[in-house]
Amino acid sequence: MQITLETKPYAALETDALVSYVFEQSDSVQGRISEIDQATGGLVRRLAQSGELTGKNLEFTLIHAPVGLKAVRLLLVGAGKREQFNSATLRKIAGAALRYLKARSVKSVAFLVREGDANEESAQVVTEGALAADFESDKYKTEKKNGKNIESVSVAGYSDAERAAGEKGLSKGRVIAESQNFARDLINEPSNKLTPTILAQKAEAMAKSAGLYVEILDEKKISELKMGALLSVAQGSVEPPRMIVITYNPPSAKPGVPVIGLIGKAVTFDTGGISIKPSEGMEKMKYDMAGGATMIGVMRALAALKPNVKVICVVPSTENMPGGRAQKPGDIQTAMSGKTIEVLNTDAEGRLILADGVYYAKQLGATHLIDAATLTGAIVVALAGVNVGVFGSDQPFTDKLLASAKATGEKMWQMPMDDEYREFIKGTVADIQNISSGKGAGATIGAMFIKEFTGDSPWIHLDIAGTAWNDDAKAWLAKGPTGVGLRTLVHLVMSY
Ligand code: BES
Ligand code: ZN
Ligand code: ZN
Predict the structure, then answer these.
(1) Which residues are 264's β-sheet partners?
(2) Which position among 277, 406, 411, 474 bears the catalytic label?
């Protein structure tokens, strides 16, 4: 799908569909919508007066052959109350409009931003919304949804003077959405098509073409480095583990400035190991590498956006299988940090591989750590698919991340990390145990475990178990992988 900026007057645009958005207020026919109303001989006002067009959030009004416009169709999308309107709403409107029109075999779309909205941010979010909405999980279908492809989108409503800002936003939005879709593609891959080895190859290929430094540690190197926690999970599988390390190190990075470590859980399939999961729904555990894929996607975006800060991405990758050599409940393992772990449940494997991941990122020089992981079923119980669970050891750093989440329209909710929870993982026979000895607070317990390996570095853990996968399609996003977290993390790094 091609996406460009358009400065021609919208009435003259020859497109399959001209799209704009309408607010829910007593007189919704204002500004540019009022111009369209006049051009179409009072059509919009008539629709508003009849009650068909109300401006309610994501209400669609499709008008065919609108008089006075060159466009074949006019689509007006409800944007809700004007006071509540922001860039997150605009992104969703653009995405929902794209999916609505795509389903109707439309080929070309012009998205008209409203008066006052022709700026860099609008172009960015419209681009992000449209490109993310275009993503489909049909790679392995031999018969594609034939013909249903939007070929071009133009972002309209910009004057010549506003073109430079618009172009800038558009190219930023393209980088971010394409990186998000890159991550979603990885997440979608089934485990027979994406082993730790293949994931590492794909990450390496991306890093090389983006000009990033990359190193793939194989099982031999992982053993030499004594990453015992990662190895303990990997030993149950015939597929060898990988530790993927991608570094972005700009010449502009100043000494004394934070070095950000991004660590992502990449379990390419989680059977639970010997503490095996029920078969119902187990197929979904191919997305247990979403945290790792998201971090790799973030690096792809950073390579193009070029922030002034060094970023080290560390992705431990393995399968969690109940093979003959698999670790068993009660086994004691020594992590890279030297801490001993009693593995009471082999299904709590994400925290094990992240223990070595965060520790290694620190060793490589990261001063600020952020991990993303599909870590617990408990976060799904607490927050469902609505919010990412956020856990942090340093409030100013966590606040910075929450601000980035807000700015990029990704919903995140901070969860507690009180010292009292430390008691729950205190070991009886080893230093710590990988599950709680008590009941409740499962997501916090998982976070507390990872914290053990972060020393005194500011650290944030994102539990994306509930949000990395959409069980149902949204109006603006297909069913399947979401790539959640990527926009927030890119924004956070860019803000340094
Ligand atoms: N990968 C799962 C968590 C998960 C659950 C991801 C649902 C996506 C959707 C993780 O490895 C796991 O199995 N966690 C256990 C931990 C428990 C044994 C303490 C869980 O949440 O049940
Ligand atoms: Zn598990
Ligand atoms: Zn898992």
Answers:
(1) 372
(2) 277
How much distance in Å is there from the Cα of 131 to the middle of ligand 3?
29
How much is the average pLDDT of 195-218? 99
Within 6 A (CB) of ligand 1 lie: 270, 288, 345, 347-350, 374-378, 380, 435, 442, 465
Q: Dihedrals φ, ψ of 145, to 5°?
A: -65, 85
Q: Which of 324, 364, 311 has the alpha carbon at shortest distance from 493?
A: 311
The question of whether 351 is a catalytic residue gets the answer yes
Does the annotation count 32 as an active-site position? no
DSSP 407-465: HTT--EEE----GGGGGGGB-SSSSEESS-SSSS-HHHHHHHHHHTTSTTS-EEEEE-T
Q: Tell me which ligand sits closest to the C-alpha of residue 374.
A: 1
Ligand 1 pocket check: which of 375, 437, 449, 462 to mutate, most ligand atoms within 8 Å of Cβ? 375
- 254 close to 308: Cβ distance less than 8 angstroms: yes
Ligand 1 atom nearest the C-alpha of 277 is 13
- Report CA(436)–ligand 1 centroid distance (Å): 13
Calculate how far, in angstroms, residue 347's C-alpha sits from the geometric centre of ligand 2. 3
> In the chain, pLDDT over 90 holds for what percent of residues?
97
pLDDT band of residue 244 (cuts 50, 70, 90) is very high
pLDDT tens by residue, 141-197: 988 766 689 999 999 999 999 999 999 999 999 999 999 999 999 999 999 999 999
Q: What is the mean pLDDT of the chain?
A: 97
Among residues 142, 137, 138, 114, which one has the least CA distance to residue 126? 114
Distances in whole angstroms, Cα of residue 271 to Cα of each of 186, 256, 279, 284, 380: 19, 43, 9, 10, 18
**Residue 93: other Cβ atoms inside 10 A:** 26
